[in-house]
Structure formats: C-alpha cells, structure tokens
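Methods: example folding runs. The two proteins below were folded one after another, and each record is reproduced exactly as written to the output file, sequence line first and structure-token line second.
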Amino acid sequence: QLCNLGKKSKGTKEDERRRQMACRQAVTMATVARRALAMTRGLRSTTLTTSTTASSSRYVGHIQRTLHTAAGQAHSDYEQQPPKSPEDIVNVTFIDRDEKRVPIAGKVGDNVLYLARLHGIELEGACEASLACSTCHVYVSHPFFDKLSEPCEDEEDMLDLAALLQENSRLGCQIVLSKELDGMELTLPKFTRNFYVDGHVPQPH
C-alpha cells in the first residue's frame, strides 16, 4: 500500500526518491517479519511441506537453514576446537566499538560470528545466523573484502537494513575463515539495528 500510495500524487524528484526508499524499506521489513514467523512455526514442528514450484523450494530451504542454526549450533561447537596444525591457524583482528583491537588466532573453517562470541567480542547475532537480522554486521578490511565470496540475496536483504552501512559491510555469520583471510581486520559498527527480537541477546553455546 505504501508503494502504491505515492504513485497517485505528483511531486519533485526528491519526493519520488524518498518514496522509493520508503517503499524498499517497507518491503524488506515485511520480509524480515515473514522469516521470523517462519522460524517460529518451524521450531514448533519438525515436518515441512515441500512444493513443486521453485519459489516454494527456496522458502522451504530457508526454513531448513533456520532449524539447523537455531537447534544445532554446529558451528559454535567447531569454533571451540583447537586447530589441528599450525597451518590451519588464521589470524584475525576484531576492532570493537571502543576502537580496542583484539587479535585472535582462529582456524580454517571458523565462522566469524561464533568465533567472536567465543572470545567475548560483542557481536550479537540475534537471529542465530538464520539470515533474519543484521546484528552481526561488520566492516571487512581491504583487500580481504574482495577475497570473500559474493553475498547471497538473503544477506543483501539484511544488509539493506543494517545501520551505518558501508561498501565493505558484511554479516559476520556469513564469513568463514580460510588461509587467504589471514591478517583480516573486522570492525564493529558503533551500533546495530535489531528487527528480529527486541531485547534478545543470545548467549555463547
């Protein structure tokens, strides 16, 4: 309705730009609400109904990822394991909201969100890595930003909602360490925006 409302009235180019921006934010917020609802329903039932259409398959796939991350937390267990050899070590540095530098020796395969939690870094991750929020938003140092895989559509949707978005913004839950990321710096923005669960702060597993 918000998108169609502005079409009936004429205005300046600035008015049109603002209408389009408001429309995009409204659509994205509606997407977040639908994903949160899907997660709630999915956690109450272990039976998922599949569909023959491509769009429904993608939707079901998202619910399956949600159930896996919320129930299993497999990655958080992995981050607690020591590296098998010195060759597996990946050194990264977190820069927190007070601009304090925290060097951490991670390993190949570590997920940045869970690695941060393990070492007491205040990277929230309210949706438990189900791509339903932007509270694990980080800035990735150059040139390491260009070495990351391209963000999926779900991640891009959540980044559209992130506060203080920059060109080197990514979600920490979508970054998995590899040897070519050795030396990477990850800066936390001054604040995040939580549309997922108001006041929910997940605890490390």
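Second run, written to the same file directly after the first:
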Amino acid sequence: PTSKPTFAPIVPQPSPFPTSKPTFAPIVEPSFAPSSSPTSNPTQSCRDDPTFRRNNVEMKSCNWIGETEKRRSQNCSIQNVIDNCPQACRLCCDDDEDFRLEIKGGDFIQCEWISQKKARQKKYCGKKVNKKAAENAGALITNKCGESCGRCAAPSSMPSQGEYPSGSPSDSGKPSVAPTGKPSIS
C-alpha cells in the first residue's frame, strides 16, 4: 500500500457549497492482505504474440487480424485476441523495438528511421510487410510503428480535422449538453 493517494483530485477547487453529510475518514489499513503467489496474468506487453492464431486457424495471425479495419472490428472485441494482439488491435501506440523492416538494398530499419522524414512516413506507414519469409509478413507497418507513423497523436482539446473535412457540420438531432458560449444562429 502507498502512503499517499494514487490519483490527484479530479476537481482542482473545492465546491462552492458544503455537503449535507460528512465525508468518510480515510482508511489507514489495507482492505486485504497481499496474495501469497503472483497473479496469473502478468502486466501485458504491448507486443503481438507471433504464435497466436484465432480459433487455431493458421492464416488468422495477429498480422492478419490487424491488416484491415473490418478484421479489427470483427476480432478485436474478443478477449483472447485483445490479450494476444494488442498491436494489431491498435491498443497501444508505442513502436515495437524488435520490429525490423527490410528495405531496398537489403538493409533493415527500425520504426524510428521511418519517423525521421515525412516522405518515409508517407511511403511506409500505409503499407504492409510483403516478404513471405519475414517474421512480420502481412503486418501493417503502422501497427508495428504506431508512434513513428503518427497513428497515436497526443490528445487535443480541439476537435480533430481530417485531411478532408466534410462540407457541413454534422447534426445528431439532439441539443448539446453544455452551452457553447455563443448563441446559435437560426
């Protein structure tokens, strides 16, 4: 157990109104004793298991699952796929330090090399590893090099704008929950 709270308060300032009931005093002692053996599931690595096959079907590897949006949407909600294919399911954004891509001339490069130039990102990030004998054959490079390909940009407080924004705003038919600060124009 830690001597300090794990999380910072969610609200930076006290509320303007007192509560009607008192808050509970913090518990000093832990609620349970530590286990005598380690947990069955160690901290998950953000690497695909190269031996995993969905339903034991040889072609349905993590690389196969991660190859298309349709396959990801059909498979990445299944727990054993999530556990074995976090890169293919795009659950993590870091670069796979073990990933090597053979480029023209027989050189092997890592994800960081791709990130060094926009032209490299454009050339490689949308492609898959084609070498049949390669360990990562069929893998989308963006799944192995999430950070270097810019797939997982830092969150922003502004709405994202795609390369091709739509011509008009979307309308959900429901009013917004919070006021925008500017009146609507009818």
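Comment on the second run: The CA atoms of residues 63 and 139 lie 4 Å apart.
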